[in-house]
Specification:
Immunoglobulin-like; 279 residues; 14-stranded mixed beta sheet; globular; alpha+beta; single chain; 12% helix; 14 strands
C-alpha cells in the first residue's frame, strides 16, 4: 500500500501545474485588502480547474474553469489573491442554500515531493485554508437567527435564542448548551466564524477542522465575480510551513454555492502549483 502511495506522490510531483511567483513586498499583510496597491505589481497566474472527478457526489459540470492567482509575502506572512467568475453572490442561509467558497491547500510536512494533490493520503497530510462567503457575512453582520432565516416559521423557543433576557438568568453557558447539542459536542460549525477554517486531511473524508493560526480572509463580490484574499503566517507549528527559497507547493478549489456546490461538489486543480520566491 505504501508503494502505491509513493507512486501516486511521484506521479503528482511529475504533473505539477504552472509555477506561481510569490513576490516580496513591504506591506502589512495582516490586513487583507483585495484592492491594495501592491497587487498591481504581483504577477498573475491563470490556474485551470475542473469539476471534482473522484468522489461522489460530484458536480454536474465544471462551473469554475479558471482561477487567477497572485501571491505576495513580507517575510512573516503570505497572502494570495484569487479571482474567479461567479454570476451571483451566495452566502448560504436556509436549508438547501449553499455558500460560495474557496480553499488553498499546502503539504503539511516538508519534503522533496508533495503528497497526492487530492486531499493527501494516510501519513501524507495536507493543510487547507477554507474561506466561505457565509463566514464573512457572519463576521460582518452577525450569525443570522432562526427568525431571520425562516421569517414565516412559528416556534415557542429555540436553543440559545431565548425571547427574553430573564429566561437566561441563572443559567451558565454550559447549562444553555444542554439545549444545543452541536455546541455541547464542540461541532466547529455551531459557532460564528472569523472567515477561514484551517483543516488537516490525510485523504478523502478525513478533514478535521483545527484551531486557527491567525489565518484570515476577505472577499469582495462585484460585477459577476469574486476577488478574495486569504493570508496566513509563513510558519505554522503543527501545520504547514512555507520558507522563502525552499520547495513549496499550493493547490486550489472553488465552490459556487448558487450552483449547488458544497462538500465534494467543487472545482479544483488536479496538480500542484510550485511556489517560486522572488524579491
Amino acid at each position: 500500500m505504501r508503494s502505491l502511495l509513493l507512486a501516486a506522490t511521484l506521479a503528482s510531483a511529475a504533473a505539477l501545474a504552472q509555477d506561481l511567483e510569490v513576490r516580496s513586498v513591504k506591506a502589512d499583510l495582516s490586513k487583507d485588502d483585495p484592492a491594495a496597491p501592491y497587487w498591481a505589481s504581483a504577477p498573475e497566474t491563470n490556474v485551470s480547474l475542473i469539476g471534482q472527478p473522484m468522489v461522489v457526489p460530484r458536480p454536474g459540470s465544471t462551473t469554475t474553469a479558471n482561477l487567477t492567482v497572485q501571491a505576495v509575502h513580507d517575510g512573516k506572512r503570505i497572502a494570495f489573491r484569487l479571482r474567479w467568475a461567479d454570476t451571483e453572490k451566495s452566502e448560504a442561509g436556509p436549508l438547501g442554500k449553499f455558500s460560495d467558497a474557496a480553499a488553498i491547500q499546502f503539504p503539511a510536512q516538508a519534503g522533496d515531493f508533495p503528497p497526492p494533490v487530492m486531499m493527501g493520503a494516510k501519513g501524507l497530510p495536507v493543510h487547507l485554508f477554507h474561506w466561505r462567503a457565509q463566514y464573512q457575512r457572519d463576521r460582518e453582520q452577525g450569525k443570522p437567527d432562526i427568525k431571520t432565516l425562516y421569517p414565516n416559521g412559528s416556534i415557542d423557543i429555540y436553543p440559545m435564542e431565548f425571547p427574553a433576557a430573564e429566561a437566561n438568568r441563572g443559567l451558565s453557558e454550559k447549562d444553555q448548551e444542554k439545549f444545543s447539542p452541536a455546541r455541547a459536542e464542540g461541532n466547529p460549525q455551531a459557532y460564528a466564524k472569523t472567515g477561514v477554517d484551517e483543516i488537516i486531511a490525510e485523504g478523502f473524508s478525513t478533514s478535521q477542522v483545527q484551531e486557527g493560526h491567525s489565518s484570515s480572509g476577505q472577499g469582495v463580490w462585484k460585477d459577476g465575480g469574486w476577488t478574495l484574499v486569504i493570508s496566513r503566517p509563513l510558519v505554522i507549528e503543527g501545520g504547514s510551513t512555507l520558507k522563502p527559497g525552499a520547495k513549496s507547493w499550493a493547490a486550489f478549489a472553488v465552490w459556487q454555492g448558487g450552483q449547488g456546490e458544497v462538500g465534494s461538489r467543487k472545482c479544483l486543480t488536479m496538480a500542484w502549483s510550485t511556489l517560486v520566491w522572488k524579491e
